[in-house]
Fold this protein.
Amino acid sequence: MIQINNLQKRFGEKTAVNIDNYFISQGDMLGLVGNNGAGKTTLFRLILDLLQADHGNVTINDIDVSQSEDWKRFTGAFIDDGFLIDYLTPEEYFYFIGKMYGLKKEEVDDRLVPFERFMNGEVIGQKKFIRNFSAGNKQKIGIISAMLHHPQLLILDEPFNFLDPSSQSIIKQLLQKYNEEHGATVIISSHNLNHTVDVCPRIALLEHGVIIRDIENENNSAEKELEAYFNVSVEEKVEMENDTDEETPEEEGTAAVAEGGTLPESERIADATLDTVSDKPFEATAKAPVGEENPLEAVRTIEETTTETKI
């Protein structure tokens, strides 16, 4: 289904994706996991030819995605709400997507029926544009539009984001059922390990743009391995922060005084200078524009007048 060959993408000095060889079979349900900045969204954009690779290529059913658009006929994807046409109503948008794939309005209506529980009466018939919906309902519209034409390849980036717990549960069931009934390849990314483990029999762990583990997940067997990996990552990060958390020169000076010592010479000189300066009257250096009175000069004049009156 999908073959990734020596794929590389850099942004300046940062390598976002660096995958030598990776294959995703027809019918796989793959979860892509990794920390922020691991390269998940960048990889999806490369697969969908939304970014140009610096090196290597991606083929879908032996079609190089950068050389032909034939793969788009059997691919559905939702990455973010930039995929939506927000000045349309959901109905108009669904009919537009259906028309692109040769579906009549009646067929679109029929294909929306399985999503009724997912939409929960909050999407269809609301008489408002997509841009006026909540983030959660925009997410629902995007996911449904990606699945509407029954694609053989479905790619969803963070599909559980913005959804309430009930909707998250429903979409997990819908994705599993879709994968089984249509034999489709489904690839999702998520920060939520529980959702990913619940849904995907295969999980790819991405770190700094590299797939470092390809895990078979039978009966949630990957959960402990993933939790161990991410917990170790957190512990290493905390350890590094502790190692670099040393006292600054200012903190050292303060600590010395607190223990009955003296300040460093440079700080004693600075303090003496400040004491000297503090004994002198403030001298204004700002000049007022021509034709305007300088407020500081006005204050000085008032003070002088007050002094003369007292004498």
User: Anything to note?
Assistant: Confidence is low (pLDDT under 50) at residues 254-260, 266-311. Strands lie at 2-11, 14-24, 29-33, 55-60, 63-64, 75-78, 153-157, 185-189, 202-207, 210-216.
